[in-house]
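User: My instructor asked us to take a sequence, write out its structure as tokens, and then describe one feature of it. I'm not sure where to start. Here is the sequence I was given:
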Amino acid sequence: MISPVINWYFKQRSQDLRMNLERADQKQEELLVELIERLSNTRYGEKYQISENSTYDDFRAKVPVVVYEDLKPWIDRNMAGEQQLLWPGDIVWYAKSSGTTSNVSKFIPMSFESLEYNHYECSRETLTQYCAFFPETEIFRGKGLLIGGSHRVNALNQNAFYGDLSAVLMNHLPAWVNWKSTPDMEIAMIENWEEKLEKMAQSVYQENVTSMSGVPTWTLVLLNRLLEITGKNNILAIWPNLELFLHGGVSFEPYKDQFASLIPSNKMNYFETYNASEGFFGLQASPGKSDLLLMTHHGVFYEFYPVSKGEEYIIPLSDVVIGVNYAVVITTVGGLWRYVIGDTVLFTDTKPYTFKITGRTKLFINAFGEELVIENAESAIAIASKETAAIVTDYSAGPIYLSNQGDAGHEWLIEFSKEPTSFEDFIRILDSALKRANEDYQAKRQGDIVMKLPKVISVPKNTFHDWLKSKGKLGGQNKVPRLSNDRMVIEEIKATMGLF
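Assistant: Let's start with the prediction itself. The structure tokens for your sequence are:
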């Protein structure tokens, strides 16, 4: 039971959250006015002739839509000590982010406003929403297990400090938050993921853990290691008071059955958040549903463009249409101006704004006009797994280009923790589910003329772990690219296996 004081606090926050979401368009307009005023006091705003009286039309006409590479020269100068470039204040903290679809690390500026009014406020909104759903929660009686990247902070020079997003956030949190978290900072700061995982497993099983937060893939690795160490049959035998898993980073759907097996309790709750180094954007709208609430009042101004058309068709949030697949463009209190984050979303409602994450602008397969996106793949994998009693640990797919043998199609590398009852049935069901989910895929598969039945290879245990390790991308926010529009990832993983 939440104490009366905490209950009152979150009840007040819940009312404020609901009111702000109902006034989302107004909140976005007010935020843009503030952001334009800030932009007018920067060198970036000076370059693009933005004044404090500029309108949205001015902003849209003058300030270009950019990706990280466009802002990198500005960020590099900022990190060298030059200020007032992208944001009118001193920025000395940067979240180092390893891109899913790129080998180049990104250093995202973290202003005070970005930390306090976006990341921390949205974290509070997450707890607000959860406590509104489950007023009898006991999560505050135990500790929260944080399964993030290394919390070590690195000094690039006297003007710039960087680390994983979790490191930057933890460095600015009050001491009481660390007191209610596990593992301790000595373990959390370990940079080697495998060493950190082992030490974490050896220490946290003795704690009263009531909640966990992390990426599902890495969390499963830790939970399975805990069972090995303790000899217990399930996680509840270790943490009987565990009730919440806050997850993000990848779709939870393919891992739902694995978590249910490890944590066999109908009182266990799973709650999705949508956050990244660039910002905290959304959280679960209601229990048992995958729709996310867009956080429209915490330092991020949103624009969108239809993936099928391109950025010349960019629109503000107030103009979005339900059912259209959009790329997300953000302007933030961290100094990111009209920045393409690389994610795609589809709105399911506009009162309030709720949406589903459909993938990434670079995570798709469209070698033959099939326009396969990650949402299609995740759904099909889940269906095929359920109907063949399989458990998928991870996977990656890419195109097989047309050759003299005429074997064009898709190749899937799948790591199973439990093999399907019939491998042939798994492939057939996967293909059928993709056809139902995607009309373009169905058309290209018609009659086996353009694309053949998917080629599925069951890869050995730890294949994806070893591939990520070879690239120095274990733990934290790192994850396997699920879909690629070329064969580079597929060939790299097959090389790891010794297949050429």
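For the description part of your assignment, you could build on this observation: DSSP finds 17 helices and 21 strands in the chain. Try explaining in your own words what that tells you about the chain.
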